[in-house]
Amino acid sequence: MYPPSIQKLIDLFSKFPTVGPRTASRFVFYLLKLPKEEVKEFLKSILELRKSVKTCEFCFNPFQPSQISEKLCQICSNPSRDKTLLCLVEKESDLISLEKTKKYKGLYFILGGTISALKKADIEKIRIKELEERIKNYPEIQEIILATNPTTEGEATSLYLERFLKKNLPVGRQITHLGRGLPVGGELEYADEETLSSALEGRK
Amino acid sequence: MYPPSIQKLIDLFSKFPTVGPRTASRFVFYLLKLPKEEVKEFLKSILELRKSVKTCEFCFNPFQPSQISEKLCQICSNPSRDKTLLCLVEKESDLISLEKTKKYKGLYFILGGTISALKKADIEKIRIKELEERIKNYPEIQEIILATNPTTEGEATSLYLERFLKKNLPVGRQITHLGRGLPVGGELEYADEETLSSALEGRK
Amino acid sequence: MYPPSIQKLIDLFSKFPTVGPRTASRFVFYLLKLPKEEVKEFLKSILELRKSVKTCEFCFNPFQPSQISEKLCQICSNPSRDKTLLCLVEKESDLISLEKTKKYKGLYFILGGTISALKKADIEKIRIKELEERIKNYPEIQEIILATNPTTEGEATSLYLERFLKKNLPVGRQITHLGRGLPVGGELEYADEETLSSALEGRK
Amino acid sequence: MYPPSIQKLIDLFSKFPTVGPRTASRFVFYLLKLPKEEVKEFLKSILELRKSVKTCEFCFNPFQPSQISEKLCQICSNPSRDKTLLCLVEKESDLISLEKTKKYKGLYFILGGTISALKKADIEKIRIKELEERIKNYPEIQEIILATNPTTEGEATSLYLERFLKKNLPVGRQITHLGRGLPVGGELEYADEETLSSALEGRK
């Protein structure tokens, strides 16, 4: 139905997360109508992104190398962050969400995914070897916070990590989990029993 | 449009919580088609409800008087419940939700609503005098759990109650709140900052 | 969890259309708190509904017998309605929806349901015998409008009725269907192909 | 929070239709992880789109010039399309939706928008001069189909166009509108009165 070069770009946009063919076609019509200068700016920004953004060698967070550090992101290279705390998150946007709270002053480690089964192939999808290496080389870590999502996959990953850490962490280190309970705006009447139980147990 | 006796009942059903005129008319057509015996059973059940259900004199939970107690509900008259714990909830269904977790063994007190402003008229909407009286007459209470919903009204009510209890509770009594955090199935990426802050602070 | 007479009424309300156990329990708490007089009025209204509302002997619409007619509803007993038009609808609320347009001046016939398969048991669920009888006894009917819903079941019923009417209607009578097309507020971009085809074919 | 080159691209993606900052950031992380070759292909496709796609000189549909025509799209240059029919649509995707039905064999004209008020500035947002020119130069047009959306803006545009065409069209030409009615899957009970009235009037 569409000319080939429109269809081609619809197909590529359809691979973007959350995008279906209808939205993809709206993106293409948007690009078709965009002033020449803005298309240039868009293309340049993608090239710039790919050229300038690197992955932090400690936490795997994407960052732009600066005078402060060529290898570590802004968080990992910040001397005022608390090096005794390590927070394990599934993905980049989870790190951003936690940073926005301004309540956490420790370091992060991006797992790069979740595991749904304890098969070898599945476990290799997350950065378990890199995590093992961090534990060995950074004995100053006193607490590891398992901040995976409270979804089925996140829980399975958390369980696996807890077992792994108990074996590999030096004596005296703590493993903690994010508190469970009712979110802001939530209602007791619509909460599941597990959430309510956690809210009761975690009362203070 | 509808015959008067249909319209009359549509109007009455429209006052039920969550029911609009369209749903109300479906209820009326349902009642019109119901076998005679089932209509009788329905009417009898409403009469029975009004006749047999009383309000617990301690917690205001609706209950059916029994041989065990004429004045107290099953929870309040249960000798194995922990009388040192009192959980304040907004309404009946919140009590039911907490009971379903089977994690709470103390007593309840149903406030009967929330307050949105600190005006006298507003405060009188909840059972504050009865609460004051419970505190005086039941010195065995050691901890009061503020289990209002984490909504705007619930929070305002909780704040008001906290100030009220600090003034009125004997020295050494504890005031606690349900734990805040991510609910089961929630995701860090979509959580608000306050919820995430609570989850971080409440880690364990 | 609930006292028996509360649970009993929750169970009965849960059988109402669109009502689940949670809404049913809200209905019961609503009835528990309702002033005595209003509960009386509610019960009286249900009794009145069952006593005063009859089913129209022609169209099966519920109505309240009046001086004008003991057996026919307001529409069927209205001498100014066009007796040459008969509109077949699935249920009472569809009749009401069409009446609200004030564009239709003919008579109705409520089928009492839809058929999903051409099995005998299925066909007996709608008033096919009564429809046959109407056609025989009312030769003044010139046009029959098939106003079933454009859903899968409605379409199947419409197809069955069309075949049935072609066999049973006297020569020269018309069978029509409600026009298809985009509804008010609809958009071409989100319309299915069948709807758009109908809109194109039905242009005027 | 994000490095500048990530933030820059989030800002640009946030201008895409239907995209907010959260989705935009997911797009950027997607692009960061995409294999180098696929990023290249994506950029090349955008350049190719801008270079190869032109706007049809008759209907304003985007198309790729071919041996058949340098100036007209596949539809306008197709000798078997019916030149006596002209269908006015708001935007490119509406044309695609109508083409998918395979029921329309005439030509199109993309208005490029809708008008919400009859101000000069508003009217200039749609291709009214180009439409006037088409009418003058193509006397073979016998019917103009107003296929704007049945939304408030679409209706206002349709009304304006109808008045404009009545003044400017040669005698004997027809102005039609897409049929209104219930869409596939719709239900009488939930349809608005205008839609039902149209469905009744358009019965056949």
CATH class of the largest domain in chain A: Alpha Beta
Oligomer: homotetramer
Residue ranges of chain A: pLDDT <50 for 5 or more in a row?
none
Any idea what the CATH architecture of the largest domain in chain A is?
A: 3-Layer(aba) Sandwich
Tell me the greatest interface.
Answer: B-C, 45 and 45 residues
Largest beta sheet of chain A, briefly?
4 strands, parallel
Our measurement of the CA-to-CA distance between the termini of chain A, rounded to an integer number of angstroms, reads 62 Å
Number of helices of chain A: 8
- What sort of overall outline of chain A do the alpha carbons produce when their principal axes are compared? globular
What would you note in describing this structure?
Four copies of one chain form a homotetramer. In chain A, strand 5 (143-146), helix 7 (152-168) and strand 6 form a beta-alpha-beta unit. In chain A, 44% of the residues lie in helices and 12% in strands. Chain A has two domains: 4-52, RecR Domain 1 (Helicase, Ruva Protein, domain 3, Orthogonal Bundle); 74-201, Dna Topoisomerase Vi A Subunit, Chain: A, domain 2 (3-Layer(aba) Sandwich). The mean pLDDT of chain A is 94. With 204 residues, chain A is an alpha/beta fold. Chain A contains eight helices and six strands; from the N terminus they run H-H-H-E-E-E-H-E-H-H-E-H-E-H. In chain A, the strands form two sheets. A four-stranded parallel β-sheet of chain A has the order 4-3-5-6. The radius of gyration of chain A is 21 Å and the shape is globular. Chain A binds chain B through residues 89-90, 93-94, 97-98, 100-101, 103-104, 145, 147, 149-151, 176-189, 191-204, and chain B through 89-90, 93-94, 97-98, 100-101, 103-104, 145, 147, 149-151, 176-189, 191-204.
